[in-house]
Design the sequence.
RNA sequence: GGGGGCAUGGCGGAAUCGGUAGACGCAGCGGACUUAAAAUCCGCAGGCCCAUAAGGGCUGUAAGGGUUCAAGUCCCUUUGCCCCCA
């Protein structure tokens, strides 16, 4: 308890006080769950330690904290940890720009962010903190890599990769945006051929796709996004031989084998190995020039749909597998080497992209499907992609297109020129990064033995300290001879370490497993601990991780389950994707410059402080460039963490975007002050929460005075509504509204009998505890409540307390509401009908007519239909 | 282009299985307290219309249509916005 000025609410005084006490007493240390005890794993996506907490973090962690606190009150053993996604480029960029050591920079950021997190009053067990850049963590990331390597799921291959010329590193496809720019540096990404490490996620594609259906606790749209990303399509692989009956040829994948007879050309990726042998001498120059140009542009650029499809004929041709006619071969920008077989068959009549390509290059269009089976009189003016009946297709004419695919595939199969095939959009996961500040890949390259794993007992392969990091020139580790030079663990000869580090998504794809057993030095986690806590009951984070982080985590969880290292195959049972925190933004429409809100004098008529021009206003995600960021520290300093928490929860439902509004923050602060005064008045009148409390549940509601009964009803309505709001869909906004209603209903609290007062106040403080943990704890102690408010039991609902002698009944006439009458709360249908018919409202609106039909909804309404 | 979602007062948002639309809050207005202001407390409040008033009527959930005793909620069409994939 804090002494100063007891009648006023001073959050700054009480919050630090209670944070200190909770920590000292270990209130939030995860209890070892007893046998049979219900466990609950509440997890927030751990942050990158950038050094400053922003409002998006606050929203994320407050949501998870409310859930964790509520589960504790409901008697569960709760795991609610926090950690740091601590490898990554910003630390390295800081090293380049300011010469600081990435490790020092990261540690300092973690310290300051940890302090900021503490000031929010989160019920986190800090003893379980996990930091991915610490050797005692990344030792196990390396071990995980070696497990994958041992099963052939980590492998090296030469690949055309996305090269970021600014950050001097390779990027995964997912890290390149639609405009072909790096997600981090914003640079135009180039394509290069490099030998890189990959993880075989495609081997798990079917399982990852099929099990999405079972993730009923995930938002539909996240599951859809993952399904699209995996992109399974069924079709056929078809071989176009160079000549018959020759063996060799070009294989294509198509989802439309039914259009095979419409093929008028073939297109290869410029990088396809067959390009040289199919290029005629007179086309050699044009082909070479085109390939050189393609090497400079990214995959996204090449396939962008709004630009013309460019290509060059090679001069050579292949043979159609069924018609045996010659098919000319082209190369074009829109075919990518790593996609399918790197070659597609061109069917301009039935594919929009092929039609566009054929039109601009004068290639013939051959219609083989028509809606009614009749041949078309005129050449089509666009591709027909719908179903129909085959024409011009040799023996397949008249067959429905849906049935034709398997028939044609079977014919090809018989000829040894094709087979059914399932194709995925998902690629294997490229994890090599030519950077310093990441987890070293524990591999040694030996002239004789090849890629040799570092023996498990030699892990971790420590990241060397004191390394000079330059802006350009690839991996800093590669030039570190004393580090890279080692003996081969197999043959003992001089060998060289792998100098690439891992994609940080690798580190963040298993951290939730480490939390269950964070200090284990013998293994990544014990099976006992991991199986006791996994899967995560509630995962909370931003929707920006809907694809990558969540898919990678699912993949590694499945892999470890296959290794019998854990029992669950899916890591996250329920997922909540919280909306962005937005703030008001001002922009001068003429200059397109953003104006800081502080510089705008009159928000009702916002004008440019320099020119006086009127400004556009809208809500956008907080960011430095838009000058609209709100610093959580300043909000906490001014109003306290409890107000910030309440505001964020109340202002919008958790999955929707939230518009920051200072006036609403103020309003929330006022509510907490009002609550404080309310409880203070109760205390001043001698109210306490210690000692034996009378059990009101046994006393029938009708024996209480009307006021006692009203207050009890408000108490139990609050229990019912708030429990419901926190049960299935997390509706924190309406839960806070119910707390306000409850408080408003206690205006005459002091006139109620002591037992009713005590029940109301204790209930109010316990229901409030997950939302405003400091305020509720302080008031609980002022009233001499036993122990901590956070160690109480969630109040249980007394149905009888909700009962009312009379309730309003809506009278409708012909479905239109005409008013209400008071009826006994327990009246049956017949009584309700006769009361409704006898009412003044019925008399007025029916004017003596007898209703033809009467609909009675007990407890709600009676509808009279004349 | 394909897939998914959303649209409710001046604003953020409520509304269980179709059953009094606008809970709760912000902003606003009126009153009390005060020398005054702030703070606090009490009250009003979707729109339009009638009435001196008490009160009453009509209308209203992007637009249009449908199902139903009853539609913000279900179905169809249109428009606008957002997200994902191309």
Sequence:
């Amino acid at each position: 308890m804090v002494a100063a000025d007891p009648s006023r609410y001073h959050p700054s005084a009480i919050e630090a006080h209670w944070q200190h006490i909770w920590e000292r007493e270990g209130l939030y240390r995860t209890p070892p769950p007893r046998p049979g005890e219900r466990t609950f794993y509440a997890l927030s996506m751990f942050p990158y330690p950038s050094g400053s907490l922003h409002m998006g973090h606050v929203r994320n962690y407050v949501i998870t904290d409310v859930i964790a606190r509520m589960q504790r009150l409901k008697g569960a053993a709760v795991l609610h940890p926090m950690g740091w996604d601590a490898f990554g480029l910003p630390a390295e960029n800081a090293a380049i720009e300011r010469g600081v050591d990435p490790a020092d920079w990261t540690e300092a950021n973690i310290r300051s962010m940890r302090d900021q997190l503490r000031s929010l009053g989160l019920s986190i067990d800090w003893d379980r903190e996990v930091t991915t850049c610490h050797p005692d963590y990344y030792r196990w990331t390396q071990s995980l890599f070696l497990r994958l390597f041992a099963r052939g799921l980590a492998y090296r291959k030469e690949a055309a990769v996305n090269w970021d010329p600014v950050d001097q590193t390779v990027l995964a496809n997912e890290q390149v945006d639609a405009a072909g720019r790096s997600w981090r540096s914003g640079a135009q990404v180039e394509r290069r051929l490099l030998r890189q490490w990959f993880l075989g996620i495609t081997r798990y594609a079917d399982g990852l796709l099929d099990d999405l259906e079972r993730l009923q606790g995930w938002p539909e749209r996240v599951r859809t996004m993952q399904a699209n990303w995996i992109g399974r399509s069924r079709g056929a692989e078809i071989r176009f031989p160079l000549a018959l009956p020759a063996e060799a040829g070009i294989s294509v994948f198509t989802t439309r084998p039914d259009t095979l007879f419409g093929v008028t050309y073939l297109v290869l990726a410029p990088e396809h190995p067959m390009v040289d042998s199919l290029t005629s001498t007179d086309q050699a120059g044009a082909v070479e020039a085109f390939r050189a140009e393609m090497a400079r542009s990214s995959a996204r650029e090449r396939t962008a749909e709004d630009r013309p499809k460019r290509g060059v004929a090679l001069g050579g041709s292949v043979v159609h597998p069924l018609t045996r006619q010659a098919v000319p071969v082209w190369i074009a920008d829109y075919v990518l080497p790593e996609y399918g077989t790197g070659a597609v068959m061109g069917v301009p009549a039935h594919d929009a992209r092929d039609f566009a390509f054929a039109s601009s290059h004068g290639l013939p269009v051959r219609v083989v499907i028509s809606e009614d089976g009749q041949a078309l009189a005129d050449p089509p003016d666009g591709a027909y992609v719908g179903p129909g009946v085959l024409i011009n297709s040799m023996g397949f004419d008249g067959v429905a297109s849906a049935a034709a695919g398997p028939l044609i595939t079977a014919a090809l199969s018989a000829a040894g020129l094709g087979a059914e095939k399932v194709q995925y959009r998902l690629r294997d996961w490229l994890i090599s990064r030519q950077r310093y500040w990441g987890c070293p890949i524990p591999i040694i390259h030996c002239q004789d033995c090849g890629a040799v794993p570092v023996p498990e007992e030699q892990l971790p392969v420590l990241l060397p300290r004191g390394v000079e990091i330059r802006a350009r020139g690839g991996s800093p580790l590669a030039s570190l001879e004393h580090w890279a030079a080692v003996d081969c663990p197999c043959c003992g000869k001089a060998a060289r370490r792998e100098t690439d580090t891992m994609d940080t998504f690798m580190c963040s794809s298993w951290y939730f497993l480490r939390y269950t057993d964070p200090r284990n030095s013998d293994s990544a986690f014990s099976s006992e601990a991991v199986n006791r806590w996994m899967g995560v009951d509630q995962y909370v984070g931003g929707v920006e991780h809907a694809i990558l982080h969540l898919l990678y985590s699912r993949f590694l969880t499945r892999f470890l389950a296959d290794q019998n290292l854990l029992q669950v195959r899916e890591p996250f049972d329920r997922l909540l994707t919280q909306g962005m925190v937005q703030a008001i933004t001002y922009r001068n429409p003429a200059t397109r410059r953003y104006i800081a809100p502080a510089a705008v004098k009159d928000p009702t008529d916002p004008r440019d402080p320099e020119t006086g021009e009127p400004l556009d206003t809208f809500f956008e995600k907080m960011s430095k460039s838009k000058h609209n960021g709100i610093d959580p520290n300043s909000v906490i300093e001014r109003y306290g963490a409890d107000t910030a928490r309440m505001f964020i929860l109340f202002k919008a439902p958790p999955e929707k975007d939230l518009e920051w509004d200072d006036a609403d923050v103020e309003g929330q602060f006022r509510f907490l002050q009002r609550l404080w005064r309310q409880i203070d008045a109760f205390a001043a009148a001698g109210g306490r929460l210690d000692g034996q409390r009378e059990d009101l549940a046994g006393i029938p509601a009708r024996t209480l005075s009307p006021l006692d009964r009203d207050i009890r009803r408000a108490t139990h309505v609050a229990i019912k509504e708030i429990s419901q709001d926190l049960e299935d869909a997390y509706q924190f906004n309406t839960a806070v509204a119910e707390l306000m209603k409850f408080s408003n209903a206690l205006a005459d609290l002091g006139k109620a009998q002591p037992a009713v007062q005590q029940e109301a106040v204790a209930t109010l403080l316990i229901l409030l505890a997950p939302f405003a943990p400091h305020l509720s704890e302080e008031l609980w102690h002022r009233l001499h409540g036993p122990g901590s408010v956070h160690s109480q039991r969630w109040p249980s609902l007394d149905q009888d307390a909700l009962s009312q002698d009379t309730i309003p009944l809506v009278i409708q006439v012909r479905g239109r509401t005409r008013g209400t009458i008071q009826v006994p709360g327990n009246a049956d249908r017949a009584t309700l009908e006769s009361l409704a018919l006898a009412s003044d409202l019925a008399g007025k609106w029916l004017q003596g007519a007898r209703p033809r039909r009467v609909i009675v909804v007990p407890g709600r309404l009676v509808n009279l239909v004349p």
Observations:
- Chain A has a mean pLDDT of 87.
- The first strand of chain A starts at residue 39 and ends at 44.
